């Protein structure tokens, strides 16, 4: 049976840190679905959803084991629908850990079949953070080193 993992996030924007987690995840899973949680009625993104999905698909276009999915429901429910038994997340530091610890417990409560698998960030990407990138970009700072595509 194929080992399918969902890698959920807002990816606003998708960074080199995210890319690293996906590529390393491929050594563990047969297929990785990058799940972009998005609520179309809330206009709370900085980078537009279609634009971001396009960029992500372009990065991995040569790899048919990586797919994207935009969804607006519980990650635990989406995982059931796409037959993903694993939820992939990246861990940078103890702040991530505290948060991830709670959501992984809740996700397993909602979907007993779902195991969260954490990969510790590669040191070169440990400081790469989507919200800081948004802030720097907003004030016209150069963020190109943190992104695996051109803005
Ligand atoms: P969310 O809005 O759900 O926190 P993000 O898009 O910020 O989603 O991140 C998705 C996942 O990627 C999370 O597990 C997060 O911890 C992880 N992540 C974010 N940045 C990095 C990074 N630089 N290195 C490794 N993992 C990361």
Shape: globular
- What is the count of distinct domains? 1
Q: Could you give the distance between the termini?
A: 38 Å
Return the CATH architecture.
3-Layer(aba) Sandwich
Strand order of the largest sheet: 3-2-1-4-5
What would the CATH topology be?
Answer: Rossmann fold
Ligand set: adenosine-5'-diphosphate
Give me the CATH superfamily: HUPs
E-strand count: 5
The CATH class name reads Alpha Beta
Query: What is the alpha-carbon Rg in Å?
Result: 15 Å
By DSSP (H or I, 4+ residues per run), the number of helices equals 5
What does this structure look like?
A 5-stranded parallel sheet has the order 3-2-1-4-5, sandwiched between helices. It has helices at residues 16-25, 49-59, 75-81, 94-110, 130-138; strands spanning 4-9, 31-37, 66-71, 86-91, 115-120. With 151 residues, it is α/β, with parallel strands linked by helices. It has 5 helices and 5 strands, in the order βαβαβαβαβα. The longest helix is centred in the C-terminal third of the chain and has 17 residues, at 94-110. The chain has a single domain, classed as Rossmann fold, CATH 3.40.50. The protein starts with a strand and ends in a 13-residue tail after the last helix. It binds adenosine-5'-diphosphate. Adenosine-5'-diphosphate is lined by residues 9-11, 15, 17-18, 21, 89-90, 92, 96, 121, 125, 128, 130.
């Amino acid at each position: 049976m194929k080992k399918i993992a969902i890698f959920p996030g807002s990816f606003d924007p998708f960074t080199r840190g995210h890319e690293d987690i996906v590529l390393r995840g491929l050594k563990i899973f047969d297929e990785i679905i990058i799940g972009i949680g998005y609520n179309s009625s809330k206009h709370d993104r900085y980078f537009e959803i279609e634009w971001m999905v396009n960029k992500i698909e372009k990065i991995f276009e040569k790899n048919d084991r990586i797919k994207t999915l935009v969804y607006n429901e519980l990650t635990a429910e989406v995982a059931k629908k796409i037959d993903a038994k694993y939820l992939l997340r990246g861990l940078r530091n103890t702040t991530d850990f505290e948060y991830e610890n709670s959501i992984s417990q809740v996700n397993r409560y909602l979907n007993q079949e779902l195991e969260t698998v954490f990969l510790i960030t590669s040191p070169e990407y440990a400081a790469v953070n989507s919200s800081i990138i948004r802030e720097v970009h907003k004030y016209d700072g150069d963020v190109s080193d943190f992104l695996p595509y051109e803005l």
